[in-house]
Amino acid sequence: MSHHHADTRVVSVESEHYNATLVRRVDQTADLAYFQVRFDGAPVPFEPGQYMTIGVYANGRLLQRPYSVASAPQDAGTDGYELFIRLVPVARFTTALWRLPVGHHMRMIGPKGRFILEPDDRRTHLFVSTGTGVAPFVSMIRERMAQGAPRRTVLVNGVSYADELGYREELERLERTGAYPLRYVPTVSRPQDPRNADWTGRTGRVESIVESACHDCHLRPDRTVVYICGNPEMILNVESQLMRLGYPEFHVKKELYWPKAKRAAPVA
Ligand SMILES: Cc1cc2nc3c(=O)[nH]c(=O)nc-3n(C[C@H](O)[C@H](O)[C@H](O)COP(=O)(O)OP(=O)(O)OC[C@H]3O[C@@H](n4cnc5c(N)ncnc54)[C@H](O)[C@@H]3O)c2cc1C
User: What is the C-alpha separation between 55 and 70, in angstroms, rounded?
Assistant: First the structure.
């Protein structure tokens, strides 16, 4: 039984510039927030897992960055596109975005990306993420649930501090109520930090718990499809661990949120 599907479907519509508005913002921590961006015109269809590129003007220059959509496609016309974004304090895009008032105009292009679910895939879905990399998986789960066609899912999300776990309440509720066949596996990498004082769940980086998560959830390499999203170092580490555990390479899909750092130059 082979479940190898090549990425042959053409899913991205012709990209165009669209006028959009920031319609809502909900802050999770000082540097994490949920943004709802709505097209001023008709919504554009997308597949869960795809991203939109949003743009804001700062000092007369248009800055643009890609963000995975966390909302379900059927909500694009009403609520818009939900994005879960970390403020990176480097004075580029996110610092400008954080200053943008709700109701302000912005740009949005998309969708793009091939990090999407395969049709009719009966395998268990192992979703592995760091930080905001949970976003595309939330879209996938919400959409599959709305379609009444859930996929058996294990979702790993690693953060530094427990208060950074995006969509935690929603995911815990889906798991607790059985509304979706989900095992939610959050982990915090800095258990000793006072910010994590109340945390009683798993600890350690994603790389160090993914093997035990696979074991605890009885995942079998030949019946599991793996999607990994977020920090590129984590993605490469998790991928090589899964290869070691016998997961075939074509069962693994990846979405890197930034380029892998070049190897540090040797100290002269
Ligand atoms: C396909 C794709 C989807 C993306 N989806 C998201 C998303 O859903 N949410 C999101 O917050 N970002 C996402 N990103 C990253 C995003 O596009 C920006 O790079 C990020 O918001 C930082 O923008 P910046 O201009 O402030 O800094 P940049 O100059 O663009 O980045 C500076 C540095 O910040 C770090 N960094 C970038 N993004 C993150 C992050 N999310 N968490 C922690 N550190 C980071 C990296 O080390 C990077 O080199 C995605 C990137 C890609 C390629």
Answer: 18
> Where in the chain is CATH 2.40.30.10?
18-112
pLDDT above 90 coverage of the chain, percent:
86
- Which atom, in ligand 1's list, is nearest to the CA of 136? 8
Instruction: Report d(CA 127, CA 191) in Å as an integer.
Output: 23
Is residue 161 within 8 A of residue 188, CB to CB? The reply is yes
Q: What is the distance between the alpha carbons of residues 239 and 227, in angstroms, rounded to a whole number?
A: 10
For ligand 1, say whether the CB of 65 is within 6 Å of any of its atoms: yes
The class (CATH top level) of 18-112 is: mainly beta
Mean pLDDT over the full length of the chain: 92
Residue range(s) in the chain whose domain bears CATH number 3.40.50.80: 124-256
Nearest by Cα to 52 from 168, 150, 135: 135
Domain boundaries 124-256, corresponding CATH code: 3.40.50.80
What pLDDT sits at residue 59?
87
Distance CA 12, CA 254 (A): 18
Select from 117, 108, 144, 126 the least CA-distant residue to 7. 117
Please say if the pLDDT value at position 11 is more than 60.
no
Ligand 1 close to Cβ of residue 114 (< 6 A): no
pLDDT tens for 115-150 read 999 999 999 999 999 999 999 999 999 999 999 999
Q: Which of 32, 65, 130, 205 to mutate to test the pocket of ligand 1 (most atoms within 8 A of CB)?
A: 65
Q: What is the pLDDT of residues 57-104, one digit of tens each?
A: 988 899 999 999 999 999 999 999 999 999 999 889 999 999 999 999
